[in-house]
Amino acid sequence: MSSLPAESAVHLDPTAPSRTAVPSDPAAPVAANQILLGLNTFGDAGVDADGNPKEHALVLRELLQEAKLADAVGIHAFGVGEHHRRDFAVSVPEVFLAAAAAVTSRIRLGSAVTVLSSDDPIRVFQRFATVDALSNGRAEVMLGRGSFVESFPLFGLDLADYEVLFEEKLELFDKVRAQKPVHWAGRTRPNVNGLQVYPQLQHHLLPAWIGVGGTPESVLRCAEYGYPIIFAIIGGEPRRFAPLVNLYREAMAKYGHPMRQIATHSPGFIADTDEAAREELFPHWLEQRNRIGAERGWGPGNRGEFDAMCGPEGALYVGSPETVAQKIALLKRNLGVDRFDLKYSNGTLPHQSMMRCIELYGTEVAPRVTELLADAA
Fold first, then answer.
1. Mean pLDDT, range 101-105, rounded to an integer
2. Is the pLDDT of residue 82 over 90?
3. Of 6, 74, 350, 370, which sits most exposed with the smallest number of CB within 10 A?
4. Hey, is 341 helix, strand or coil?
């Protein structure tokens, strides 16, 4: 691997020690000609050189190397998603993030997402508050209901309570996040009567996002709490999310909240050329697409579907650094988002390929996006 510059992400100013493009409030919107770049992974459990499934322990150790590299090349944020199934190694994001805090120095560390519905909001806050202390204020949590439901039977919850679990637990989390004595009553867990939750954060509230899949109801719920929002765009055309982005802005104003960051999350992969990126990713994308699709009743995927999603208007950010940078710049122009998170792990994609993708994302994609947005200003 080539030697890596210490800093090269979109939000970094190489001429000054301060990161002037990153707001002091980590949830405040960025300028119209800027975008923050993050990375997401679920700790996808691939296969070894002999084609055997990798042990989760090995995947987690490799994942720590990926987080360390992301920090070295100046990526803004690194998020790991919570799952409870064989094909993903991360089940407790905060434990991994605490380890990552010890080997990184600048990058923000968060979940992508934490399944709040099947967890205890007080414990979620406590674990992320601990990560925030260990990372010197770099923790953030993304809360969601989760697109997989394995955690519900695992923790003895009824899927019939899917909606009320999230609604009540989000209400409780918001009260805990305020770092004041908590008064809360509901039916999904015992009441809390004026108790204080520890540890508390130094000098700030825990940055908390809500991840949504694309329903107006989810957007409005996020705006009601005044949290920043991240849209999971894993299919279709990102520009079609414009009405939901506008709905969020309008609802934030209606509720009287200051505007918060808007982000999107999409899968992708970067290699030296478009052809190399597509050819390397396709079999891994297809394996994962068909495995999950079979669980959800989808028909089989094919190369035509993949190539269409890799196109300029598709949801896969796949190609050379120039192609991916152009696509991110287009996203900024179409939706005006403040942040883009690339889900760089894709099924059985090898660790070394993901490391190269991270390197290119920080050293080539990020500065090129800066140039493209500056030219468009």
1. 98
2. yes
3. 6
4. strand
* Selection from 47, 60, 144, 45 nearest residue 98 by Cα: 60
End-to-end Cα distance, the chain: 35
Q: Outline where DSSP puts E strands in 317-374.
A: 317-319, 339-343
Report which of 230, 295, 296, 292 is spatially closest to residue 265, judged by C-alpha positions.
230
**What is the phi/psi pair of residue 150, to 5°?**
-60, -25
The structure tokens listed for 158 are 């009824």
Please indicate whether residue 17 or residue 243 has the higher confidence score (pLDDT).
243
Compute the Cα dihedral for 343, 101, 152, 163 and give only its sign: negative
List pLDDT tens digits, range 148-195. 999 999 999 999 999 999 999 999 999 999 999 999 999 999 999 999
Which residues make Cβ contacts (< 8 Å) with residue 349, sequence separation at least 6? 44, 46, 269, 280, 281, 284
CA distance 11 to 7: 10
Which pLDDT band, with edges at 50, 70 and 90, does 23 fall under? low
Helix (H, G, I), strand (E, B) or coil at 149: coil
Angle at 11 between CA 220 and CA 24, to 5 degrees: 65
Fill in the amino acid letter for 356. Answer: R
Cis before 113 (ω within 30): yes
Strands (E), 60-201: 77-80, 108-111, 114-115, 139-144, 182-184, 192-195
189 Cβ neighbours under 8 A, 6+ residues apart? 120, 168, 169, 172
Closest CA to 177 of 128, 231, 212: 128
In degrees, rounded to 5, the angle at the alpha carbon of residue 159 between the alpha carbons of residues 153 and 162 is 125
